Fold each of these.
Amino acid sequence: MAVEGGMKCVKFLVFFFNFIFWVCGVALIAIGIYAQVALGKALVVSSGSSAGTPVAILVLGVIIFFISFFGCCGAWKESYCMVTTFAVLLSIIFLVEIAAAIAGYVFKDKVRSVLNEGLQEAMNEYGEDPAVTEELDDLQRNFNCCGAINYTDWANIKQFQANDTVPRSCCRVNTTTCNVHPSPATVYEKGCLQSIEGWMKKNILVVAAVALGIAFFEILGIIFACCLMRGIRSGYEVM
């Protein structure tokens, strides 16, 4: 009876932690969507590798979301194969997350370089590509920024260099000449690279807290799944 009660407890814990994983999956999906919406303009004008980051978070959330249902079914039906598959998949996801965290830390300076290059390329295409022009204008308005490093970056673009102007999306005041002979009094002095980095630093603690919480529950889920696998394989009655 003690063994049976213990296995019932393990089964309940596996089921409970799968519910937690389901919540974690929903959280990652929400974070991915939020990052895509909030940084959408910056990611469009940047490189493909940067643009894939919110999508990767979103995909990971969807994967965890479905694996949690798989684990619930395995625990409920006491299927050794399903519980084993759940534990293996969860272990793989945990290792991928660790690798991604290490890569993110190692290449954090590369992200700044990629964003800067993407912004510079978009500025060079401003006025020539309607889609890039619209995205860059929206980015400067939404982040209250101008240029990549600062508003003087536009002086290196041929179409603005000749008449000493900047795009009207740089204007901090709404006048007909706000973008002519720009100065900190009329246009945003801060560059978009700094604004984007500020947004990321402001929200990185939330992302880190969510990631740590998910990793903690993943470890517990793997442990309890292994315990349930052992019980099922030993032929204990868990119902």
Amino acid sequence: MGKRVAVVLAGCGVYDGSEIHESSAVLVHLSREGAQAEVYAPDVDQMHVVDHVKGQPTQEKRNVLVESARIARGNIKDLAKLDVKGLDALIIPGGFGVAKNLSTWATQGKNCIVSKEVEDVLKAFHAAKKPIGLCCISPVLAAKIFPGCELTVGHDTECEKWPYAKTAETMKELGCKHVNKHVTEIHVDVKNKLVTTSAFMCNAPVHEIYDGIGKMVREVVRLA
């Protein structure tokens, strides 16, 4: 039997949900490693819905679980039903939904609240010493919940290639150790079994983002 890995989604689409390319890369690489992905999402309303053509919020209302089901091809469960006992690892792809629907990072930064369901799941995997893979913006969840942990969101100096580098500084303010890494690299916090990679925090070709996520997934499966 291959490893059973929980993948937690936050909707569908970079600006208000899970980043689709990152989510797809996670699922492809898990399949390649012979692991079984079990997809979950919280059954809650999105913070808001963004028109991805205009980049502007709309008046629409959407549900995180219903939208995440688009990526999971309908094969998805309510996050409230996740049981850590039957699972070997956890992976959370990025996208603004992590900062809007799984937490309030988008509006409150380091003073954010992580949704109770998401916090409980992260703490359960951590307590069971099971590996957790996080990419793009999702390492902020660990930064908030596990003080002193080691993470990467890429680089900590803002430039055209690293437009979201201020995130690293905020994570340091939470007491974390941020490690600068290229988009195709990962960082492993051995003590906390956290594996992180920057993904779309970097303005990089999509194949480099895909490769970095592949390394993250391989290491998560290896640690499981």
Amino acid sequence: PAPAGLPADPEPEEAVTDDSSRHGGRVRCFPHERGSWATLVYLPCGAPEEFLELLELLVSRARTYVSSLAAMEEFHLSLSQCVVLRYHWIDPFVRSLKERLASFHRFFCVADQVKVYTNQNKTRTFIGLEVSTGHFQLLELVSEVDRVLEEFDLPTFYKDPSFHISLAWCVGDLSDRLEGQCLRELQDIVDRFEDSALLLRVQWEQIHCKSGNKYFSFPLR
């Protein structure tokens, strides 16, 4: 899920009622527990006007196959799974991330291959742009993030990751409707979009970590 959609942790005295209708029918990947903060490490992606124009074209076409698709409001490329941190782990976790990521330089990726994804428990389906250039640098970053996760006995990233930027989502596993003909039409829109080669070349300048409602930034050199 996008960072903006991660469940934020309440103050300790607050009671929590999980109501999926309040966030578009999305279902938590893990039950809420007081003192546990949903955490994600990711590369933030800006959305210039031309990118939003491309997004509108893609979502409009995809809705002819799945009418419930919703466009993302923020864009990112994940470097970790969404994991759970205890509150008192947040500061040491962030310090360890900062140390391991300090030597990395800025780099770019090209994300221009349309692909359909589902989350692990098949409760949501996504349309994303998969990275075709920059995979090696992303694997290096994930390797360092994984080492930090291992320090805290947390799940590491996927073994053979498909690095991507999610563009739109819907509730349920509707991948069969979006793959095949729909996917070919979406890829054709991307390939024919004016200046798409330049537009989908993303320069990464910083890494972010979101834990509950706390945000941390690690500039690349």
Amino acid sequence: MVKGIINTAAEQAEQLKQDGNLYFKKNRLGAAIDAYTEAITLCPDVPVYWTNRALCHRKRNEWGRVEEDCMRAVRLDPKSVKGHYMLGLALLQRENYAEGIKALERALDLGRGAHPNSYMVEEIWQELASAKYKEWVHDSTKRNLALQKLEKSCEIALQEKLVHDLSHKTDGTDEVGYSTSEQLAALKLIFSKAAEADKPTDVPDYLCCKITLDIFRDPVITPSGLTYERAVILDHLEK
């Protein structure tokens, strides 16, 4: 009797999932969320119900709920590509770049292992590349602001030292002023060189595939020692 109840609950949950999928295709997101929620209530340990509901929340830009559902999904199934993928997107929305990138990298690894040529792998790679660029912009901006603040503090300190030295000068020479000008010029040069590390540069040739001329995504090395994009060289060999 108990087994029959369990099977009935599972069947009802699966039917609710199918209903939710149909609502989602018709863009009836509220109805889809309700259907997936009922399925989750009946069978809370099925990860796809959580990721399906998260997808609805994603389309509504309800990123907090996306994160909650995907966290539950990846706990239930650590190999859920969609779970890690949408979790990464949700974390990036609140600028948690480190954890967001980690989740996207996990999704990419799982996707390549399961379906290397699927559209989702390409989509995840694009989002990961964008996330890493945003992280670099965020971190470089933060470093530049800190450098500018430090440079300003150093300039103020030198100017204050100049005022102090001039007030205690006994001869009529301008050596103090010349010395401070040289120090300010040197200071400006030092901070200018320090800021160069955060200036964007061209991608080196060794990081690009010789066939696609694009940045490597999944590079492989041939017996001859040359590096190519995996999908491109496999396609070439098959032909």
